[in-house]
Amino acid sequence: MTAPRIEIRLDDIAHNTRTLVERLALRGISVCAVTKATLGSPEIARVLLAAGATSLGESRVENVESLRRAGITAEILLIRSPMLSQVERVVTHTEVSLNSEIGVIEALSGAATGLGVRHGVVLMVELGDLREGIMPEDLPSVVRRVVELPGIDLVGIGANLACQNGIIPDRSNMHELECLATSVERQIGTTLRLVTGGNSANLDWALAMSGATSGVNHLRLGESILLGREPTNRAAIDGLRTGAFTFVAEVIESKEKPRTAWGTRGQPAFAVGPGEGTDHPGSEGHRTSRRVLVAAGRQDIDPAGLTPPAGHRLLGTSSDHLVLETSTGTPPEVGAELRFGVDYSALLRAMTSPFVERSFLHGSPPRSQG
Ligand SMILES: *Cc1c(COP(=O)(O)O)cnc(C)c1O
């Protein structure tokens, strides 16, 4: 098998989806599964839908088009505000988009009427995290304008927290969203299909409730489904699997070397990240250590998001190399494969890199090596 590659355990993704869909159904919440970290992988999208996600969420039209080309017909929400330059593609390939600019919604209206289709709009409201969203006091005037636009259906309102400033979704801001939904419904005289409360960071709030919410009926979940973790503290979510993705790369050098670099020092190729060091003098009197070079780097993976295998420590990274120190009894030889855990950032980079092969696994994980 070729390396570097990302191994994808579809059963784990199905398990996580099913578990969250069931738990949230008890709270009256449906799940839109967010595929953006998978580069719009149709293999993963099919698993998400089969496991109970009612729609898919994507932030990029290009990924949506890959899903459509692969024959995925489920409802897809564009979860990033459409670019004006892409409105025709947006109304052609997605049913719904999340919006915060009236000019964009007008352009969607023009594109939809031109193509003879209808497009659903969710109005995003700013609730304090300061990324996308209409200021709450401006919502009534935007609603008034949107409901007049031909080709456009106002299908919901929503919010996104945690991504920009780490603002945590809680009873207070979710209550504010529910009140805004109620006032929009009063204003337009019909109920909104979607009150979409947020992303994986909403799970602590949602799962703490004993019954249905008083309005939020939809969440857009990526990280929690794919990695089994809650993004505001990266804690594993009870009952979910955290190992659906493994990054595998191949050893290209394995040698005992001095622990301290020598010669005149300038800057290394890349700034040294937390927990990394280009070298380190041995504290216990060891002057040398076993160092392995792995054929993968920043063009394949975000090194800060890698968890090296047991007995290995990441010393440094450049475009195409990972340098590790190993303390295992039998150090990995040239040609051996090392297996790394990934966080969301490392996953995103691996799925986006043309150098990283995807390997889809069904059933139980292979024994860990190295
Ligand atoms: C990325 C994103 C999501 C999904 O976020 P996760 O933390 O991966 O669950 C949901 N909504 C919007 C608007 C997003 O950009």
Describe the overall structure:
By secondary structure, the chain is α/β, with parallel strands linked by helices. The protein has 10 helices and 16 strands. The protein has helices at 10-25, 42-50, 61-69, 87-93, 102-115, 139-146, 171-188, 203-207, 223-227, 344-352; strands at residues 5-9, 30-34, 55-58, 76-78, 96-99, 119-124, 152-158, 194-196, 218-221, 245-258, 288-294, 306-307, 312-317, 322-326, 337-342, 357-361. The strands form 2 sheets. Strands 1, 10, 11, 12, 13, 14, 15 and 16 form an 8-stranded mixed beta sheet that branches. It has an 8-stranded parallel beta sheet with strand order 8-7-6-5-4-3-2-9. α4 crosses α5 (102-115). It starts with a strand and ends in a 9-residue tail after the last strand.
Fold blueprint:
Elements: E1 5-9, H1 10-25, E2 30-34, H2 42-50, E3 55-58, H3 61-69, E4 76-78, H4 87-93, E5 96-99, H5 102-115, E6 119-124, H6 139-146, E7 152-158, H7 171-188, E8 194-196, H8 203-207, E9 218-221, H9 223-227, E10 245-258, E11 288-294, E12 306-307, E13 312-317, E14 322-326, E15 337-342, H10 344-352, E16 357-361
Parallel strand pairs: 1-16, 2-3, 2-9, 3-4, 4-5, 5-6, 6-7, 7-8
Antiparallel strand pairs: 1-10, 10-11, 10-15, 11-14, 12-15, 13-14
Helix pairs in contact: 1-2, 4-5, 6-7
Short account of what is shown:
With 370 residues, the chain is of the alpha/beta class. The protein has helices spanning 10-25, 42-50, 61-69, 87-93, 102-115, 139-146, 171-188, 203-207, 223-227, 344-352, and strands at residues 5-9, 30-34, 55-58, 76-78, 96-99, 119-124, 152-158, 194-196, 218-221, 245-258, 288-294, 306-307, 312-317, 322-326, 337-342, 357-361.
